[in-house]
Amino acid sequence: MKTTSKFFAGLCCLFAASWVQAQPERADVLVYGGTPAGIAAALAASKHGHSVILVEPYRRVGGLVTNGLSHTDFRTFEGMTGTFLDFTRRVQEYYARKYGVDSPQAKGCFRGTHAEPHVNLAVLEAMLRAQPKITVLTQTRLERVKRDAAGKRIVAAEFRLPDKKTRSLGAEIFIDATYEGDLLALAKVPYRVGREARSEYGESLAPEKADTQVQGYNFRFCMTRDPKERVPAYAPPGYRREDFVDVVPLLRDGKIKAVFGIPGAIYKAQLPPLPNAKHDINDVSNAHVFTEKDTAYAAGDVRSILHKDAIAYGDYGPNCHGTAHEGPRFGGRHTGEFYKPVAPYQIPYGVLVAKEIDNLLVPVACSSSHVGFCALRLEPIWSALGAAAGTAAHVALVDKAATRKVAVAKVQNLLHAAGAGTIYTNDVLPGHKDFTAVHWWGCQGGLHGLSPTPDTPGQRGKQITGQYFEAYPGHAVELDAALDDALRARWLKLASSAGVDVTTLRAARTRGEFLRGAFAGRAK
User: CA of 432: how far to CAs of 32, 105, 202, 311, 429, in Å?
Assistant: First the structure.
């Protein structure tokens, strides 16, 4: 344990030491927003050899996962790939090293997806510090964005430093990884806030008329039953007792059973708990433009509709905590809530790009409707989009291409090689020898049509605990399964359309044999 403590202390010291290094005024890629998506983007671009400046307006990187959101939303472990999977494995290793492989902490971190914020911070900082081409600037807030004379490219961004001085930074590619889309807004990229009318995109979950309502914000924070782990509460600036005192009568008369818990409480303590007797506390619920239709089933298929230009996928489903509130602050009800069970869905490249600017990518405040955003708004998905943005920045730089005209196939190939998936499978996971081939084939449409639409929409596997489930049924590739005549005929047609010489594929006996041959013969 002494060695482990020194090891992690050393990592933190090394990260802090980045402040004494020379800080460049220009880089290949500038990422604004040290969210998990921003970190994933910076890591991806730097691993391809590019210099990166990662700018965070607050004092610590990590966004929600280092500032209270410790209960990561996802449905299945099989749905995690790429950078976020790497992060969770490092978190698992942290607890195993510090407390022991069989310790309650190592088991309680739920394969590294549920960790204390300070642990998430230490791991993310270590991942960044391991990449010498990344310069991290914290407490540096964006104030202005400068575009070229034609208005097609961002040439520089001006930031305010902790000492109130300003600093201008330039880059070839800019990535806005903030939760709110601050960079794109200051770059005067058109955007809107609110909900679209149901008729605009034909979304069943949208309201009849458009309005300016957005999903409600709420605090995510850690609480504990262990007195040794507690930090005394204090009244923050602006606190007003009268804003909260109305809850007391509701507790006295039994309308609200408890402050923390579920059901009948003000806040819910997420399950399973975090290590060290802590809980994540949450609200209690009563280009391409990504919309509800992107999460719909393909006709007669267990899978959602195919996106051949997919650069990520999700498995959670559109979920809104509410956009307004009726009645008293305590004891009233949210309106605008919804949750729709869906199959895992692909996310196309077009959600990342702005039509007007040639060197901007936006993985968090991405192009989506209100309903569509409610399916994308989760850290594992944002991290996947961030890694895709960093990879696309690399391709744009090498090919000297506008970000909206990047060769998506190149981005996909690099993502697959890095263990990042673009279609959900439950039996070919990162590290599998056929992972790259399977995900390439999935983007050609080869994994669609293997199983029919389930009788229950959004059918999941067996529940593990809370909102977490075993793998979605019907999404196995089954590489060893025999290749029947009907599937062989369809796959031969797909392979031919992908530019593969199908001569040798006609003799393939299994699914795995066929797609390995198709992958080997694909157009490079």
Answer: 34, 28, 39, 19, 6
